[in-house]
TrEMBL record:
Lineage: Bacteria, Pseudomonadati, Pseudomonadota, Alphaproteobacteria, Hyphomicrobiales
Protein's name according to its UniProt entry: Class I SAM-dependent methyltransferase
GO molecular function: 2-polyprenyl-6-hydroxyphenol methylase activity; 3-demethylubiquinol 3-O-methyltransferase activity
EC number: 2.1.1.222, 2.1.1.64
Organism expressing this protein natively: Camelimonas fluminis
Keywords: Coiled coil, Methyltransferase, Transferase
C-alpha cells in the first residue's frame, strides 16, 4: 500500500477528472452544490470589499475543476497550487484563456507550498475542496498554518472538506488514505470559524477569519446549510462533532475486522480499480482480464494484508483511547478559557506586570516622544516604532532624532489597525524604519511591511540577552527577530548586548549605546539645591533590578541620609535603619526633578543593557551606582571605575561603592560624570549612524 503523497504523485490527473465526470453524471449533486456555494461566496466577498479586485488561491487545484469556474470572473486574479505535476497535466494542457498567457505564474507545482509561494505573496481568499482530507493531521495542520501566513489583512480561508468531527482520525483507505479532521482545533487561537455542517453530501464548510489577539477562537456552528447559527466555545463545538467521531471509529473497526477474512476488501486498491473500470467503459472481456489481474495481485499481498490489519487494529486502539479522553475535552477547554491571562515581563522592559487599557492602539509624534529628541541632520528620514507601555525603551527612543510612532504591546492590533498603520508607514517614504523591542504586534507589523517591499529599510533592535530566553515570551521574541534576519525580511538587526555574535551577515555587532535626552536652550537644566547623602533609586522592585539588595546597602551606609523610591511593593526588616521615602510616579519631568535633588542615583541591577536610569542621571551630572553592564566602549573611564559594583548581589559591595562615590567632592564628581556622558553620546551617535547606514 503506497503512502498518501506517493499515491497523488503517481495519480494521473486525466483519470481523476474522468472519475469526477462519471460521479457527477451518476448520482451526486455535491459537485454542483459546492461550485454554486463557492462562486456565490466569492461574489459576496467582492461586494463586501468595496468591489476591490481579489487575489484567490485554489490550494490543491488538481486537474482544474475550479480554475475553469473561477478564472473567467473579471473581478479576481486566480492562482492555483498543487503538489502533483501529474494531477495538474490536464489543466496545463487546456488552461482557461484568462490565465493562459501567464500559466507558469498562475499555476505552480511543488512538493512544498513555501517553495513556490513565498510569504511576500498574499491572497484575499484561499480555498480547498476535498484536499486536506487526503492528508495526515500533522500535514494538514502545516498546510493550514502556511495558508494563514499568506492571507492579506481581512482575508479568509474557506475549506470544503469533511463533516465536523471532534477528533481527527483516518476514515478509510481510499486514495492512499482518507482522514476526517477536527479543523476547529487546527484554527484554535489564531482564527475565528464559521462551520456549515452536513453540506453537499458528507461535507462541511469551514470559513476562517484570522485575528491578532491573545484569546480563544470564536465559533459559529450551523448543523446544516439551513440551520440557525449557534455561537459556542471550542468545548461546546467539539460536542457537536461526537457523532461523526463515533461513526469514523465504527468504519475503521469494520474495515479492520473484514480484512483478515476477505482479502477482496482491500478498500483502497479495489475501489480505485472499480472506478477506473467505470470510467473507461471496458468490455466484458476487459473486465474479466482486469478482475483476474486483481485476483493475482490479491493473492500475492496476503502478508501486506496482515500488516495492514495490525496497523488498523492499533489505530482503533488509539482512537478508543482518544474517546476516553474526549469527555474531558469540553470541560478542560472551558476551564482554560476562563483562566486569567497575564503578561510576561521580558528583559526589554522594567514596568510592573499590568495591562494598560488607557493607551491608544498607536500614536504618532506624541509630545513625550519628541520633546527631548536630538536634531541630527544626517539622520533625516528616520522613523522609530516602539511600544507605548515599555517606558525604558520609550525613554531611549525619545532621545533619538526622527519621527516617532508608538504602538500598543498589551492590546493586540486588529487586522484593520495593522493594515491602516502599515499603509501610513509605506506612504511616508521613510529612508529608514527602526523597530525598538519585539512583541506579537511588532512581529505582525514587520511581516506586513516586509511584504510591502520595505525590507530594505527595516532595522530591528532587540533588547536583552540569551539568559532571558528561559522565558517563553522573551525566547519567542528573540527567535522571531533571528528568523526575520535569516530570511532577509529586514535589512539589519541588533541584539543590545556586547558579544552577541551569530553567523548572520546582517547582525550588527558593536553594541548600540542609548543617547541622553536633549535639553533645549541651556543644555543641562540648573540643579535644584542638593542635600548631601540623598540616594534616588527609581527602579521597580523586580529581581533584575535587584532593588532590595541596593536598598539594604543604602539603609546601612553611614554616608546615606535619605533614599527616594517609586516602588510601592517594598519593605525592609525592623532591625535596619529605614531611610526610605516613597514618591508616587507622575511623569518623566518629576523623575528629572528627583534626580537633580539627589547626590547619587542607584541602579545596581543584575541584568541590564544600557539603562536610561543611568543615562538620565549622568546627563544632569549626577552619578549612578551601577551593576556590571559589560559595555564594549569607555569601560576604562574613571567614572566607570568609581561607580561600578563588582558584585551586585553583595550588600557590602554596593554599600562600599556608595560610600566611595559620596566621598568625592561634588564639583569633581559632576565634571567626571558629564565627561563620561558626553563620550557615551558620541559613541551612540557614531554607532547608530553605522548601524543605519546613513
Amino acid at each position: 500500500m503506497s503512502s498518501n503523497p506517493e499515491y497523488w504523485k503517481n495519480r494521473r490527473g486525466v483519470d481523476y477528472k474522468n472519475q469526477q465526470d462519471v460521479q457527477r453524471t451518476a448520482d451526486s449533486e455535491s459537485y454542483t452544490l459546492q461550485e454554486r456555494w463557492l462562486t456565490s461566496y466569492i461574489r459576496d466577498l467582492h461586494a463586501r470589499g468595496g468591489q476591490r479586485r481579489l487575489r484567490v488561491l485554489d490550494f490543491g487545484c488538481g486537474a482544474g475543476r475550479f480554475a475553469h469556474l473561477l478564472a473567467p470572473l473579471d473581478f479576481l486574479d486566480y492562482f492555483g497550487y498543487d503538489s502533483s505535476a501529474s494531477m495538474v497535466e490536464p489543466l496545463r494542457a487546456n488552461p482557461p484563456s484568462a490565465i493562459k498567457e501567464a500559466l507558469d505564474e498562475r499555476i505552480r507545482v511543488s512538493e512544498r507550498f513555501e517553495a513556490v509561494f513565498p510569504e511576500s505573496e498574499t491572497f484575499d481568499l484561499i480555498f480547498t475542496v476535498s484536499v486536506l482530507v487526503h492528508n495526515r493531521p500533522d500535514t494538514a495542520r502545516r498546510m493550514i498554518s502556511a495558508m494563514m501566513d499568506r492571507l492579506t489583512p481581512g482575508g479568509k480561508i474557506v475549506l470544503i472538506e469533511n463533516s465536523h468531527t471532534a477528533v481527527s482520525a483516518m476514515e478509510n483507505l481510499w486514495y492512499g488514505g482518507r482522514w476526517c479532521h477536527a479543523f476547529s482545533q487546527y484554527f484554535e487561537g489564531r482564527a475565528d470559524t464559521e462551520i456549515i455542517d452536513r453540506f453537499a453530501d458528507r461535507h462541511a464548510i469551514y470559513i476562517a477569519s484570522l485575528f491578532f489577539e491573545i484569546r480563544p477562537s470564536r465559533h459559529v456552528y450551523h448543523a446544516h446549510s439551513k440551520a440557525d447559527a449557534i455561537i459556542c466555545s471550542l468545548g461546546d463545538l467539539l460536542s457537536h462533532g461526537l457523532d461523526q467521531a463515533e461513526e469514523i471509529n465504527e468504519n475503521i473497526l469494520r474495515e479492520a475486522e473484514s480484512i483478515p477474512a476477505n482479502n477482496e476488501s482491500i478498500i483502497g486498491q479495489l475501489l480505485d480499480i472499480r472506478e477506473k473500470l467505470a470510467e473507461r467503459e471496458l468490455t466484458c472481456d476487459q473486465h474479466m482480464r482486469r478482475i483476474l489481474e486483481l485476483e493475482n495481485a490479491l493473492n500475492s499481498m496476503s502478508e501486506q494484508c496482515k500488516q495492514l490489519s495490525n496497523a488498523l487494529s492499533e489505530t482503533s486502539v488509539r482512537f478508543a483511547d482518544r474517546q476516553k479522553l474526549l469527555e474531558h475535552v469540553g470541560a478542560g477547554l472551558r476551564d482554560a478559557q476562563n483562566r486569567r491571562s497575564y503578561r510576561t515581563i521580558t528583559s526589554e522592559e522594567t514596568t510592573p506586570p499590568r495591562v494598560r487599557t488607557d493607551l491608544p492602539i498607536y500614536e504618532k509624534n506624541k509630545s513625550q516622544d519628541i520633546k527631548y529628541a536630538h536634531t541630527i541632520s544626517e539622520f533625516e528620514g528616520l522613523l522609530h516604532i516602539f511600544h507605548a507601555e515599555w517606558v525604558g525603551i520609550r525613554a531611549a527612543v525619545g532621545s533619538l532624532p526622527g519621527t516617532k510612532i508608538s504602538i500598543s504591546a498589551d492590546r493586540l492590533l486588529s487586522t484593520q489597525d495593522l493594515s491602516e498603520l502599515s499603509r501610513q508607514i509605506h506612504s511616508g517614504n521613510y529612508k529608514k524604519v527602526l523597530i525598538h523591542g519585539f512583541s506579537q504586534n511588532m512581529s505582525k507589523l514587520v511581516s506586513l511591511l516586509s511584504r510591502m517591499d520595505l525590507a530594505s529599510v527595516l532595522y530591528i533592535i532587540k533588547h536583552g540577552n540569551p539568559a532571558q530566553w528561559c522565558y517563553d515570551a522573551e525566547r519567542k521574541a528573540a527567535f522571531d527577530v533571528l528568523d526575520f534576519a535569516a530570511t532577509g525580511r529586514v535589512r539589519r538587526v541588533h541584539f543590545m548586548k556586547a558579544g552577541f555574535d551569530l553567523d548572520l551577515g546582517n547582525i550588527f555587532r558593536p553594541m548600540l549605546f542609548n543617547m541622553a535626552p536633549a535639553f533645549r536652550g541651556s543644555g543641562v537644566p540648573p540643579l535644584s539645591p542638593r542635600e548631601r547623602g540623598v540616594v534616588f533609586a527609581p527602579a521597580w522592585a523586580d529581581w533584575r533590578k535587584n532593588l532590595y539588595t541596593g536598598l539594604i546597602a543604602a539603609c546601612t551606609a553611614n554616608s546615606v541620609g535619605k533614599i527616594l523610591v517609586y516602588a510601592d511593593n517594598i519593605d525592609v526588616p525592623n532591625l535596619i535603619n529605614n531611610k526610605i521615602i516613597r514618591h508616587k510616579f507622575i511623569d518623566r519631568e518629576q523623575t528629572f526633578g528627583l534626580i537633580t535633588s539627589s547626590s547619587v542615583c542607584m541602579n545596581a541591577s543584575i541584568v541590564d543593557c544600557h539603562p536610561m536610569v543611568n543615562i538620565e542621571a549622568q546627563s544632569f551630572g549626577v552619578p549612578c551606582v551601577r551593576g556590571r553592564l559589560n559595555l564594549d566602549a569607555l569601560e576604562d573611564h574613571p567614572y566607570v571605575k568609581l561607580t561600578e559594583v563588582d558584585d551586585a548581589m553583595s550588600i557590602a559591595n554596593i554599600r562600599s561603592v556608595l560610600d566611595r562615590v559620596l566621598a568625592v567632592p561634588e564639583n569633581e564628581l559632576r565634571d567626571m560624570t558629564l565627561d563620561y556622558q558626553a563620550a557615551s553620546d558620541a559613541v551612540s551617535r557614531n554607532r547608530y549612524g553605522e548601524f543605519l547606514e546613513f
